[in-house]
Design a protein that fits this description.
Elements lengths: L1 H70 L36 E2 L6 H5 L6 E2 L6 H5 L8 H10 L14 E3 L4 H4 L6 E7 L8 E4 L2 E3 L4 E3 L2 E6 L3 E6 L2 E6 L3 E2 L2
Amino acid sequence: MSKVLNALDVSEQSYQASVGSPFLVNQIATEVPKASSKLLIALLVLAPATVVSAYMIQQTYQSTLAQWQLDNQPKTVVEQVPYTVNQLEPMSFEGLVSTYDVNVAPREVQPVAASSSEAEFGSEPEIVPQPTTNEPLLEELDLSELSPELALRIENALGTSQPQPKQTNEQVSNLAHQADRWQGKLPRLDFQTHVYSSNPNKRWVKVNGTEFSEGDVIAQGVVLERIEQNLCQLRFEGEVIEVPALYDWQG
């Protein structure tokens, strides 16, 4: 009998325990939202203060950094260094000496037959100086490829004497000044190239597209007699005609 009573007592206690548990669960479920809301309220209160504090700290740091950079900028130091001016003496130029070597032919002593009276006193032989010239130097230069003006300058620089045109009693006509006289008579002559050299064999002109030398027939009845530095002499119908260099005669 006692065992039955003990079993009923245990059953009663179990029932009471099962009936009280939902209340505990509901109480716990109610307390959890209350704690969360309190935490949220605390965060809402502290967040603005935290942001303001962080902003103030950043501004203070920036101001302090700017002041430090301003105080620690490098300063420009101007240092004056004394100097002395050394005045040089002006250069003195002595007489210039020519370094151009010109081959000068040695003087030749030519004995002169002395008369009997001169032989008694032992007369000295006469010294005849030979003229010096730079013609050998000029002959080695080929001036045919140069313009007449440049060739003339080179020849003048070397001190060469230019051959003078032959003096004749013939009347010479200038084609540039007396064009009316030869209009319709003298054929067309276009002097395209004019090459003058101290060597007559290297003188030539190009007329109407053809090269000619002294003595050639350049057109019907027209003979090229001479090539000078700035002109040519032609012979036409027994008369001498001077034509300027590079002249274009239309005929």
